[in-house]
Automatic annotation (TrEMBL):
<dbReference type="InterPro" id="IPR017871">
    <property type="entry name" value="ABC_transporter-like_CS"/>
</dbReference>
<dbReference type="InterPro" id="IPR003439">
    <property type="entry name" value="ABC_transporter-like_ATP-bd"/>
</dbReference>
<dbReference type="InterPro" id="IPR010230">
    <property type="entry name" value="FeS-cluster_ATPase_SufC"/>
</dbReference>
<protein>
    <submittedName>
        <fullName>Fe-S cluster assembly ATPase SufC</fullName>
    </submittedName>
</protein>
<comment type="similarity">
    <text>Belongs to the ABC transporter superfamily. Ycf16 family.</text>
</comment>
<keyword id="KW-0547">Nucleotide-binding</keyword>
<dbReference type="InterPro" id="IPR003593">
    <property type="entry name" value="AAA+_ATPase"/>
</dbReference>
<dbReference type="Pfam" id="PF00005">
    <property type="entry name" value="ABC_tran"/>
</dbReference>
<keyword id="KW-0067">ATP-binding</keyword>
<feature type="domain" description="ABC transporter">
    <location>
        <begin position="4"/>
        <end position="244"/>
    </location>
</feature>
<dbReference type="InterPro" id="IPR027417">
    <property type="entry name" value="P-loop_NTPase"/>
</dbReference>
Length: 250
C-alpha cells in the first residue's frame, strides 16, 4: 500500500510563508479532501508536494513509501508514483497530447511502451471520459477549454496509474455531465494501490466521490478534520463558522 507522510510542512513562495506546519498522512485506499477558501495555500501545498521549484520547503518532512521526496526532482517524484493534476495546467508548445502522454507513461513505467497498444488504451480512455479523439493530436492544453483541460488531467492520471494522486480543483469549470464522468473515472481507479487527495472549494464533487476524510485548511494549516459530514457542514455554514482553531484539529 502506498503511504504519503507530510509532517510539520512549511512552504514559502516569493518570500512569503504560505504553508505553516501541516501534517497529513494519506494511505492507499483512502480519499482525502482538503477544503478551504481562496488563498489559504491549497495549491501551494500541491505544488510543494510535487516539487515545483518556485515553492520552497523551509521545514518539515515529506515521504512517499519512506523515500524522502524532498531530495527528489519532479520527474523522480512522478516516477515514484506521485501525480498532480494542476489547478491551471500549462501548454507545452509543439508537443501533441498523445506524445506527451506516451513519454510520461514511459517515464512512469521505466520502459518503452509499444505505440499501438498505447494508442488503443489512450483512445479507449478518451472515449470513457467523453474526450473527442481529435484531442490526441492537438497541442497539449492549447485552446482546450477549462473543462477539457480537467478531463485531460484525469486522462493522464488514468494512464499513469499513480500511487498517490493530488487533484487540485479538478472540478472547476466542469458542467454536471463532465463532473460525473470525472468522478466516475476517479471512483473506478479507487483501490488499495492508490491514495487520493482532492483539493476543492465545493462539496459538489464530494457528492460523487465520497471522501474518507475531510480537512479544512486555513492560513496554511489544517484547522479541522472529520468525515464526509464536515463537507456538508462547510457548505451549509461556511468556512468561518467551521474553522475554529483547535476544534478537532489534528
Ligand atoms: P489557494 O490554492 O488556497 O487558493 P494558493 O496556494 O494559490 O492558495 O495561494 C496562497 C497564497 O500564496 C496567496 O496569497 C498567493 O498569492 C500566494 N502565492 C501562491 N503562489 C505564489 C508564488 N509563486 N509567489 C508568491 N506568492 C504566491
Ligand atoms: Mg485559489
Ligand atoms: Mg488553488
Amino acid at each position: 500500500k502506498p503511504q504519503l507522510k507530510i509532517e510539520n510542512l512549511h512552504v514559502s513562495a516569493g518570500g512569503t510563508r504560505i504553508v505553516q506546519g501541516l501534517d497529513l498522512q494519506i494511505n492507499g485506499g483512502e480519499v482525502h479532501a482538503i477544503m478551504g477558501p481562496n488563498g489559504t495555500g491549497k495549491s501551494t501545498l500541491a505544488m510543494a508536494l510535487m516539487g515545483h521549484p518556485r515553492y520552497e520547503v523551509t521545514a518539515g518532512s515529506l515521504t512517499l513509501d519512506e523515500q524522502n521526496l524532498l531530495e527528489m526532482r519532479v520527474d523522480e517524484r512522478a516516477r515514484a508514483g506521485l501525480f498532480l493534476a494542476m489547478q491551471e495546467p500549462g501548454e507545452i508548445a509543439g508537443v501533441s497530447n498523445a506524445n506527451f502522454l506516451r513519454l510520461a507513461v514511459n517515464a512512469r513505467e521505466g520502459r518503452e511502451v509499444p505505440v499501438l497498444p498505447f494508442h488503443r488504451g489512450l483512445l479507449a480512455k478518451m472515449q470513457e471520459l467523453g474526450i473527442d479523439p481529435s484531442f490526441a493530436d492537438r497541442t497539449l492544453n492549447e485552446g482546450f477549454s477549462g473543462g477539457e483541460k480537467k478531463r485531460n488531467e484525469i486522462l493522464q492520471m488514468a494512464l499513469l496509474k499513480p500511487r498517490i494522486a493530488i487533484l487540485d480543483e479538478i472540478d472547476s469549470g466542469l458542467d454536471i455531465d463532465a463532473l460525473k464522468a470525472v468522478a466516475k473515472a476517479i471512483n473506478d481507479m479507487r483501490s488499495d494501490h492508490l491514495g487520493v487527495l482532492i483539493i476543492t472549494h465545493y462539496r459538489r464533487l464530494l457528492d460523487h466521490i465520497a471522501p474518507d476524510h475531510v480537512h479544512v485548511l486555513k492560513n496554511g494549516r489544517i484547522v479541522r478534520s472529520g468525515g464526509k459530514d464536515l463537507a456538508d457542514l462547510l457548505e451549509e455554514k461556511g468556512y468561518e463558522a467551521v474553522s475554529g482553531e483547535g476544534e478537532g484539529a489534528r
